[in-house]
Amino acid sequence: MHRHQGPPPRKFAAAIAATVLVGTAAVGLLISRYDDRPPWADDIAYEGGFVQASRIRGYDVDGSRVRALLDGECARMERDGMGGARAVHNPARWVQGCLDAAAGLPSKNQGTVR
Q1: What is the DSSP string of 33-100?
Q2: FRET partner for 110 with CA separation of 20 to 30 A, picked from 11, 42, 63, 103?
């Protein structure tokens, strides 16, 4: 029986170096393309607004907060910075998620697999 010893050390080192180089180039392209904004940032912003309004809706006993959300409080909350880091990705999508949750609509991202 003959044992295979693998590739010679020089070929192995060259293959590892090439793999690292290609991986670094791919990561560099991703960073240059998206910078600090992830590719799914619109979904993050929408879900952030949706969750915020869902929580408010869940604790609203008399319905006054829901009416306020629908009458413009979602936009005011985003302007005042209450949307947090998620609203920064896409403020309009954050407000849309907030309005959808306040209106009792299901999340637009519900059931999507990416």
Answers
A1: HHTTS-TTHHHHHHHHHHHHHHHHHHH-SSSHHHHHIIIIIHHHHHHTTTTHHHHHH-HHHHHHHHHH
A2: 63
